[in-house]
Design brief:
alpha/beta, 9-stranded mixed β-sheet, 23% strand
C-alpha cells in the first residue's frame, strides 16, 4: 500500500482517474486510546464499521482486544489479524449454522438475543453448552440518533424481564444490552437506556454480570456537531452510579463510528458540472452510501493542485457515476464557486462505513487505498488530546 505525507501530495503524484480511499493510522490510534482510557469499562470495536485489515491491525496494536462481530466472515477477518482476541456475536438474529460454527470452530462463547426463539437456537446449536455468556438486548428510544436502530432489534421491557430470567438459567454469565442508535447526538440517550436496565433489575431481582451500553457514539460532521465524548462518558458514569447496585457489573461498549470515522476520506474527481450539481466518480454505490439515504453531510474541500481557487463558496449536490438516479447525495457540500470538470475533492469522515458499503454496480468499483499522514478535515480531538494519545 502506497503512503503519502498528505492528500494533496497523493493527488499531485498519482493524478488518479478513479476514487482513492485514504487511511490515517494515527487517527485510529488516538481515538482508540481515548476510549480505552476515558470510557468507564471495556471497549469492544464494532467490526462492521470498518473491517479493513489495516484498520483492524491498528486497533489491535492500540490495545483493544475485544470485538463486536455480526457474522462468521467478521469473526474470520479479525481472527486472521490476531487469533487470541475475544469476539462477541452481538447480532441478535443468527442462523443455527452460524451459531454452531461460531461456538465449535471459532470458540465464541458470547451471544446476544432478544427473543425466546433465538435463545432456544443458541442452546440447541451449542449442544446445551455450560460456558455461554448471553446478552438480552432491550429496546430503547433512538430519538436522538441520526440513524434509528430501534425498529429491528430489542425486546420491550415486559418481554425482556421474562427473557432475562430464562436466559440466566442457561448461561455462565448473563448480560443486559441496548443500543441508542447510530450517531447519537445527546448523551441523555445513554441515561435512559441505563435507567431501563435499572427497571428490569428491580423487576427481576437479577443483577447482570455485564451491562453493555452498545455503540452510537458520534463523530463530527459539518451539520452534526455533538458534545464532547467526555460528556457522554460522564453521563454514563453518573447513570451507572444512580443504579445503586452494591457490586457494579462489568460495563462494556461497542463503538465504531467514533473510533474510525476521522481516519478515512475519499478523493473523488468531478466528471461534469451542471450549475450547482456536480457529477463525481464515486457515489452511493461506492464509499458515499451514507451521504445518500441517511443524508449525512461529509466535510468537503477542493484540492487546489496549484490553480487559483475562488474565495466565493457555493452549495452543491452530488451525483455518482452510475446510471441510477438514486445515486444522489443532497448535501449541501460547500465548495469554491469555480469548481469544474477534472477537479479533485476530498470528502472526509469516511472511516466509518465507507469501505463496507461498496458495490460493483454498473461496473464502477475502486479498490485504490492509500495511507496518508495528514490531519482529517474535521476532528473531535484537540491537539492536546492527540499529543497525549498518539503512538509514534
Amino acid at each position: 500500500m502506497q503512503k503519502f505525507k498528505s492528500v494533496d501530495d497523493l493527488v499531485n503524484q498519482l493524478k488518479p482517474t478513479e476514487p482513492v480511499y485514504c487511511i490515517r493510522i494515527n487517527s485510529i490510534q488516538v481515538a482508540s486510546k481515548f476510549f480505552q482510557k476515558k470510557f468507564p469499562g471495556k471497549v469492544l470495536y464494532a467490526v462492521k464499521t470498518n473491517p479493513h485489515p489495516i484498520v483492524l491491525k491498528t486497533i489491535v496494536e492500540s490495545g483493544i482486544n475485544n470485538f463486536d462481530v455480526a457474522s462468521i466472515k467478521e469473526i474470520e477477518v479479525i481472527k486472521n489479524i490476531n487469533p487470541n482476541v475475544k469476539c462477541s456475536f452481538m447480532h441478535t438474529v443468527k442462523s443455527r449454522e452460524c451459531i454452531k460454527a461460531a461456538y465449535f470452530k471459532h470458540g465464541i462463547k458470547t451471544f446476544s438475543l432478544d427473543t425466546k426463539d433465538e435463545l432456544i437456537k443458541i442452546i440447541e446449536s451449542t449442544n446445551q453448552a455450560k460456558d455461554l455468556e448471553l446478552f438480552v438486548r432491550i429496546s430503547v428510544s433512538n430519538e436522538h440518533a441520526e440513524i434509528d436502530l430501534s425498529k429491528k432489534f430489542g425486546a420491550i421491557s415486559s418481554e425482556a424481564a421474562g427473557l432475562l430470567r430464562l436466559a440466566k438459567q442457561y448461561s455462565k454469565k448473563i448480560g443486559l444490552s441496548f443500543h441508542v442508535g447510530s450517531q447519537c447526538m445527546h448523551p441523555i440517550s445513554y441515561s435512559k437506556g441505563i435507567l431501563e436496565i435499572g427497571n428490569i433489575i428491580k423487576r427481576t431481582k437479577i443483577v447482570p454480570d455485564i451491562i453493555n451500553i452498545g455503540g452510537g457514539f458520534p463523530t463530527i460532521y459539518p451539520d452534526l456537531v455533538p458534545q464532547s465524548l467526555q460528556n457522554y462518558f460522564e453521563e454514563i458514569k453518573k447513570s451507572l452510579k444512580n443504579l445503586k447496585i452494591e457490586k457494579m457489573p462489568e460495563v462494556i461498549c461497542e463503538p465504531g463510528r467514533a473510533i474510525v470515522a476521522e481516519s478515512g476520506s475519499t478523493i473523488v474527481r468531478v466528471n461534469l458540472r451542471k450549475k450547482q450539481k456536480l457529477y463525481i466518480n464515486d457515489g452511493t454505490y461506492g464509499t458515499l452510501f451514507d451521504a445518500g439515504v441517511p443524508n449525512i453531510v461529509y466535510p468537503s474541500r477542493l484540492i487546489a493542485n496549484g490553480r487559483v481557487v475562488s474565495k466565493k463558496f457555493t452549495s452543491f449536490d452530488f451525483y455518482g457515476p452510475t446510471c441510477d438516479s438514486m445515486d444522489y447525495m443532497k448535501g449541501p457540500f460547500i465548495l469554491p464557486n469555480n469548481i469544474k470538470e477534472n477537479d479533485y475533492i476530498e470528502l472526509g469522515q469516511l472511516g466509518a462505513y465507507g469501505l463496507t458499503f461498496r458495490t460493483h454496480f454498473n461496473g464502477f468499483y475502486s479498490n485504490n487505498i492509500c495511507k496518508v499522514e495528514c490531519e482529517p478535515i474535521m476532528t473531535m480531538y484537540d491537539k492536546e488530546t492527540k499529543n497525549e494519545f498518539l503512538v509514534a
